[in-house]
Amino acid sequence: MAAHLVLLPAFPAMAAPSSAAAVSPQRDGAEMRIGTALLRVTALTDQIVRIRIARDGRFPEDASWAVPAAMRKASVAVHPTEDGFTTAQIRVRLADGRLTVEDLSGKVISQDTIDPLTLHGTGFTLRKQLPISEHIFALGDKTGADLDRRGQTYVDWNTDVAFSSTRDPIYKSIPFFIAAGGPGGSYGLLLDNTFRAAFDFGHVDADSTIISAPDGPIDYYLIAGPSTAEVVRRYTDLTGRAPLPPLWALGYQQSRYSYMSADEVRQIAARLRAEKVPTDAMWLDIDYQDRNRPFTVNTKTFPDLAGLTGELKRDGINLIAITDLHIARAANQGYAPYDSGMAGKHFVRNPDGSTFVGPVWPGPAVFPDFTDKGARDWWGTLYKGFTADGIAGFWNDMNEPAVFETPTKTMPLDTVHHIASDDFAPRDATHAEIHNVFGMQNTRATYDGLRKLRPDERAFVMTRATYAGGQRYAVTWTGDNSSTWDHLRLSVHQLINLGLSGFSWAGADVGGFTGGPSADLLTRWFEIGAFTPIFRDHSAQGAPRAEPWVDGPDHLAIRRRFVEERYRLMPYFYALADLNARSGDPLMRPTFYDYPGLLTARGCDQSMAFTVGRSLLVAPPPKMESPQSYDVCLPAGGWFDLWSGKRVTGHPSPDQRDGDALLLTETPRLDSLPVYVRAGTILPRQPLVQSLAETPKGPLELHIYPGDNCSGNLYLDDGHSLGFTRGAFLRQTIRCTRDSRGLHILFDKREGSFKPWWQRVAIIVHDWHGSAKVTQAGKSVDATPDATAETLGFEIADPARVSEVTVVAS
């Protein structure tokens, strides 16, 4: 991709101490003098250390938008050593001005170069070694040639741009990366600096990671793994986890810029139901508003928004409305958001104290000062009317912030914001400092406002721009993508890297926002989109329509089948949502997240493969426009085909580094997407519904794919309230083991008080040949073998208590 290198004046590195004697032990870390600067390393946990450098020996205020105060103030006692300290998991060495972090066996996790720090004016540059074996991931949804960031330079500066695979910067700034494959395993690094930072991963110097910023604190966190999964979990310990979303957010969502009237919305909703495409949400873009003014409604085209919302809700469809953050400058026109905002002095200012005005969709507009808690509280009150009308969720777009008719696409860097929030000292700050957190604080204001207005309901907020930690307030999407095969490929990489960056809830506009997809492209995008966290079909104003039926009945049938599969798999998806809220593990993962051996596998092209949780591996064609066959790398342990339910066979990888990986050759077909189930999975499924508000009719299905460490999880709650925080949920683990007596299915004790929708459970054992005797608590259970499907099926009453089912071949 195109490089975006920040050129800095050449200044010599700071003078380094001559010996380890400069290291001063602390209860929770150590300090070291580097010339006039002071470096402090603090162990927040046994795996996370914080590194701060005070230029003149005096540290700036300890405040952060990304890392909550409780985490920044955390610490563990360390064991001091001559040149640093150890924790229960890592060793920190400070010598000759350099920081080295090792595991306890002495393997290097991260190490500075010989010239680790350069100060230049208000800016700085940090340099760390980049071993040849390391691969770089995360940084949000940055674009590039492939999933790996190595060999490129990236700039964090939220920018409203129609992006490409070679364009940077784009909408988000998440200054966190993961280095995987090094001698000491994976580690993560978060630079907590909101200015326009740059990250060079072996671009200028093939052996170095170079991190620079023109201003702001030298404050970063290093997270030791050793696995990538551990890094992600600990990163979400540090910056916070995404809250459990409402269940409907996991369903299929239909959007366009714009559905122009209430009648058109009704027509699209009716067609979705008539074509039996399961759907849970529809989106309103800016044209529902009066003259593009946020928090207004065009009553000519949408005469009864509450009535429309209620009508859709009764049909199981939630309505989501866009609320851009620019407020029209409409003095003396009865526009309450402007009038009340001006009265409260809630808008961003020019250096001379006047209110900043910039052109956006409604024309001249003003911008709320979201770094001020008072302004955020005021913003939250603006949703009162929409929540009363039953709008289920809100979309914060254009929040980089985007400003039209300017070469920078945003407001001037000297625009003034007021900080009055968290543990920051109240002060004014320039836009150069606040720009990258502006969108994040916009979504914080929306999220907090919705939580106050509907205190027992889960808030759903979608954002385009954000910063590290923004997952606490909003889900996201990748912005204005294009209807091209390259952007479908790119979307997979962007969503994986967003998940590694804490944003587990992310999506890309299915079909592409601009340009209009071909029939084949839209169908393939539907297939892949069905396995991504947020599944929304969206298209631009003036672009060809992209609803599921636009290309005729054959394409509609394929697209509908994949939407239906997502709904049948909803118990699996919702259990992953619960896991994510508790652990930080993303739903959509790189294949090496749970199977580290695949990081360096050479036997096949994995550029499009990903997993959904640990148990499903999705393997789209790496060259999606081509009919050329391709090999899929499946980790050791055995796999099944999701669609046939049968065990797959292939050939061993010729690359010894792959271990026991299996190569399986696939030939692309438009009506098919290879998806595999890990042997040892108990996969829950439910009867098909047209909306997640609908109660499934029939038993819950548990598909058992025998193998090592066999298990599965169930999670259920009411899908919308915070009752789960008070124990109103159901969580249960199911296990299976094999011994000489047969297959044993074990239902663990349930957690929570929530009663499930199912009364019966249908169990389907795969890879079963012949008949069987099935017993539960000493009682015989009727079982039916299926020789063609190679399964054994039977049904039992809902095992609400600890229970065991035994299956013995007969």
Main beta-sheet strand count, sense and barrel state:
9 strands, antiparallel
The structural class is alpha+beta
Q: What do we call the CATH topology of the largest domain?
A: TIM Barrel
Q: What value does the Rg take, in angstroms?
A: 27 Å
> Residue-averaged pLDDT, rounded?
95
Strand content: 25-35%
Could you name the CATH class of the largest domain?
Alpha Beta
At CATH level 2, the architecture of the largest domain is Alpha-Beta Barrel
What portion of residues is helical? Answer: 10-25%
The number of E-state strands comes to: 49
Q: What count of structural domains? A: 4
Sequence of strands across the biggest β-sheet = 5-6-7-8-9-10-16-15-12
Which spans have pLDDT < 50 for at least 5 consecutive residues? 1-21
Can you say what the CATH homologous superfamily of the largest domain is?
Glycosidases
> Distance between the terminal alpha carbons, to the nearest Å?
61 Å
Count of discrete alpha- or pi-helical segments spanning 4 or more residues: 12
Q: What do these coordinates show?
A:
This protein is α+β, with helices and mostly antiparallel strands. It has four domains: 20-239, Immunoglobulin-like (Sandwich), CATH 2.60.40.1760; 247-583, TIM Barrel; 589-676, Golgi alpha-mannosidase II (Immunoglobulin-like, Sandwich); 681-809, Immunoglobulin-like (Sandwich). Strands 5-6-7-8-9-10-16-15-12 form a nine-stranded antiparallel sheet, with no helix packed on it. The chain has an eight-stranded antiparallel sheet with strand order 1-2-3-4-17-14-13-11. Strands 29-28-27-24-20-19-18-30 form an eight-stranded parallel sheet. The model is unreliable at 1-21 (pLDDT under 50).
